């Protein structure tokens, strides 16, 4: 993954003439932004680790698995939010972890944590590096230094129980690597967030990730049956059964713990046979309220789509759900909805028919397969587009939340107002991409002229949006997690006493406070 | 509820001639057991609360809501396991809470907890009194006294959001009271454990209860969207959205906390419209392995029954799933399975057809509606039968677990062997009543001659069964919870470090250690 932008340089997306036209017409964006430094030009603060520190870390994992070289530190300097990328464009000295450590076993992870606790070194578990909430910032939290813990050597399919439909996957496997190992045996996990190509199994668990197939296969936390976690206080092996009444579910403390309570090394997950059949159908609704009510009907009746999502009027008008056609002539009127169905043939046919019945009854018009296939084709490409927009002088950022169905209209209005208030003249787009019987997510995309001091202006917009979310009954994050960026809202999210619980658990497991300081827990 | 047996005296079940014949033939049970004391005869240890203690409690909740009278203490003396009932048959002085306290608001609950922390009085939240794992034992845990906290005054439907399908229910509502309030508005919770008629919303949450409709409506913990909990350290209001990535899910610490971490006062729950249609179909399978594989196919394909359960050969032979016919001529050969479908007409038809297809393909034979309706008719009656068996000289007790599908055969064999080894000549029956994509529950019923010292003999059988469960990959409880009886296995269930986490959370919320001592946390 590029250090200063998303993903694979070979997949970078040129802006189409349509998009350039849209930027000029809607946002007044005309000139490119000043380019940032290249990897050769960028200056990092020197590593704060002493030779003795590095020797101790080498003693834990082997010399070849510790590096304080700038070339290794730079790609772990942080995540991929727009503020992250704006900071990377600075020609002043930038911060980065003081070293990268690559353990190869749970024993080595434990040894690294012991060295770091003794030497007062903070540890940031890196995952795939795709955080958009500051979860990977190299904060030292008052300690002497910080290392990036890269688990890429935890890359095995450790077990596949085909009777139970359970697989144990190493935490360092990326989405594609995990799916490839499972597909060789005829199985699939089915977790496809936009970060799929880079993010890891451990990261999905540590951030409560949710993928585009969540209607069919569930959120990542719902797929988790068991977890192994190495903490400074010892190892946990949680989750004995598909369901249990043996006290509190401690797995739920580590799902979403974002590296602050321990290092997840392996995850036991529900998997399913590779689907025999896949069916696509797109829909149009006259407006967002009608479309939202239709998705609610489908989900509350349990008709069983694998994917179901709805774009608002603005997203639909600019073809945002069909990456290749963004900014071109509107392909669909009203609000576009996409449905996809996977499974055995008879099941897919029955579920698609029940879903069609519900969507037709709710005022939908079928558009056939085309727009649904177009959505799937471009489903992982949006972050590349954001990078090109930034280079072209447009700030493009996203944020998301979830709430009960009854709260969604007020929530959407309040967030839209907060964003356009803080960024006058910006374009605010919204879609529903994850549905539950009692509510849904809302995902916002904001595009504005980059202008002067975009970091400060975006910061103000983000604060206004976060306040609006909490005020109108939403959660500060449905699937991006907390990191450093959402931490200011955690006290309101879970209350003072909730924060005290998290601190008490952390004090028990991480008494030296080395694990990802400055993230999640206020 | 009777103090020395299950439920309503008017519903007590006489043993049929068939059952008496079965007891004599299979177990050699012929003579009735010696009767225990009546409520007038039973002797309780005197209350240990001083007049000052009682005045302080009265100051918290009002004089009329505190009682140290034996008539109030006796019904809260404990739960309804067979060991509980055997202990109630003693003519020696019995233990009971030193008083019963009935707060009427969260402020009053907080005031009671403050009084108890100051005066070193333990607090046992009572729920509906249906624990079968010693969860209500009046243990003082080294403190001066113990009170039973009865939340029956928390009996309101506090909110119903018909758009989102969410209801907020007071923790003291019993199953029937909750369903009645919802049904008046056209809604249903759909949580029907065997304890349904007496157990409470707060108790369902605190024990991770699972009802007979779990295939359709989920376990109770899966229905929970939000919780209000009063702790000695303050009040928690958890659960903002249908799903969230805002850190660990703290609701999951209080679900299953069994009164050890706080007092649940209100629960926000997913509810659904009263079903328009209900369809029944019973099935026969040649053997338990074939039947289990059939249930697995149904659940892994997601064909959507509301109820699905399977009795083993022995349960089927004695008609255990059809309470009115127990012990009579076998009504079904092989293994009986029951399916029920609820919902809108088109949905029910589609789901029943897909389920039929899967069960037929897996070797099932349809028996039509009859046995499925007979199961539903008697679904809450089994505990009455146990009381009558006890009076007739037969020990009848149940235990349950869950595991991954692949582990079920070895788990079932090991538990059966443990029970019959400890109780030679006993009858061990088994069924699957809760299914998940990756595994299922196993529920065991043991019937044996009461004999000499049944408490000690059952204790040995229970220890052997619990050890077998943990050894073969099961959880110590799928839905009965932990209480005092399963506490010895908790360290093995969640590990030393898991226990340390629970203790750290408890120390933060309940520093005086007043909340349900001796339960759940080793």
From TrEMBL, chains A, B:
PROSITE patterns the UniProt entry points to: FAD_PCMH
Residues at the site labelled Important for enzyme activity: 309
Gene Ontology biological-process entries: lipid biosynthetic process
InterPro entries registered for this protein in UniProt: Alkyl-DHAP_Synthase, FAD-bd_oxidored_4_C, FAD-bd_PCMH, FAD-bd_PCMH-like_sf, FAD-bd_PCMH_sub2, FAD-linked_Oxase-like_C, Oxid_FAD_bind_N, Vanillyl_alc_oxidase_C-sub2
Keyword Ligase in record: no
Residues at the active site: 443 (proton donor/acceptor)
Highest taxon of the lineage: Bacteria
Cofactor(s), names only, from the UniProt record: FAD
An MF annotation (GO) of this entry: FAD binding
SUPFAM superfamilies to which the protein is assigned, alphabetical: FAD-binding/transporter-associated domain-like, FAD-linked oxidases, C-terminal domain
The name this protein goes by in its record: FAD-binding oxidoreductase
Taxonomic source organism: Kitasatospora xanthocidica
């Amino acid at each position: 993954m590029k250090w200063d932008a998303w993903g694979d340089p070979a997949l970078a997306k040129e802006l189409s003439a349509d998009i350039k036209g849209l930027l000029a017409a809607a946002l007044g964006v005309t000139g490119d932004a000043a380019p940032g430094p290249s990897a050769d030009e960028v200056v990092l603060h020197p590593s704060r680790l002493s030779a003795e520190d590095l020797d101790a870390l080498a003693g834990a994992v082997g010399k070849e698995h510790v590096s304080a070289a700038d070339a290794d530190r730079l790609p772990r300097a942080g995540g991929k939010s727009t503020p992250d990328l704006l900071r990377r464009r600075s020609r002043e000295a930038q911060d980065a972890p003081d070293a990268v450590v690559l353990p190869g076993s749970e024993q080595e992870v434990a040894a690294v944590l012991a060295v770091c606790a003794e030497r007062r070194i903070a540890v940031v578990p890196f995952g795939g590096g795709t955080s958009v909430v500051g979860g990977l910032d190299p904060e030292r939290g008052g300690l002497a230094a910080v290392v990036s813990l890269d688990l890429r050597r935890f890359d095995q399919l450790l077990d596949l129980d085909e009777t139970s439909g359970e697989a144990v996957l190493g935490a360092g496997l990326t989405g594609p690597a995990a799916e490839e190992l499972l597909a060789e045996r005829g199985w699939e996990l089915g977790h496809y967030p936009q970060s799929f190509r880079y993010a890891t199994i451990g990261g999905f668990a540590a951030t409560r990730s949710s993928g585009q197939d969540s209607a069919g296969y569930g959120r990542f936390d719902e797929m988790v049956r068991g977890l192994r976690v190495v903490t400074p206080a010892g190892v946990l092996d949680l989750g004995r059964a598909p369901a249990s009444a043996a006290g509190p579910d401690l797995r739920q403390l580590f799902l979403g713990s974002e590296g602050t309570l321990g290092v997840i090394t392996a995850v036991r997950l529900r998997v399913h046979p590779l689907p025999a059949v896949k069916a696509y159908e797109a829909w149009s609704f006259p407006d967002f309220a009608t479309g939202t009510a239709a998705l609610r009907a489908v989900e509350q009746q349990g008709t069983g789509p694998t994917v179901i999502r709805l774009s608002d009027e603005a997203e639909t008008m600019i073809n945002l759900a069909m990456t290749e056609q963004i900014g071109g002539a509107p392909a669909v009127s009203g609000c576009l909805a996409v449905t996809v169905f996977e499974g055995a043939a008879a099941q897919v046919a029955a579920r698609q028919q029940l879903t069609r019945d519900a969507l037709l009854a709710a005022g939908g018009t079928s558009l056939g397969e085309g727009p649904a296939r177009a959505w799937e084709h471009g489903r992982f490409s949006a972050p590349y587009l954001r990078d090109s927009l930034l280079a072209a002088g447009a700030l493009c950022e996203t944020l998301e939340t979830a709430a009960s169905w009854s709260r969604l209209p007020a929530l959407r209005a309040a967030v839209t107002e907060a964003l356009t208030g803080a960024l006058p003249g910006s374009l605010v787009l919204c879609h529903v991409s994850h549905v539950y019987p009692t509510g849904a997510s809302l995902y916002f995309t904001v595009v504005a002229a980059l202008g002067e001091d975009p970091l400060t202006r975006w910061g103000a917009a983000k604060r206004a949006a976060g306040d609006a979310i909490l005020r109108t009954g939403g959660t500060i994050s449905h699937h991006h997690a907390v990191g450093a960026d959402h931490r200011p809202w955690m006290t309101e999210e879970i209350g003072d006493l909730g924060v005290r619980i998290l601190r008490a658990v952390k004090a028990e497991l991480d008494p030296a406070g080395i694990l990802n300081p400055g993230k999640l827990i206020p």
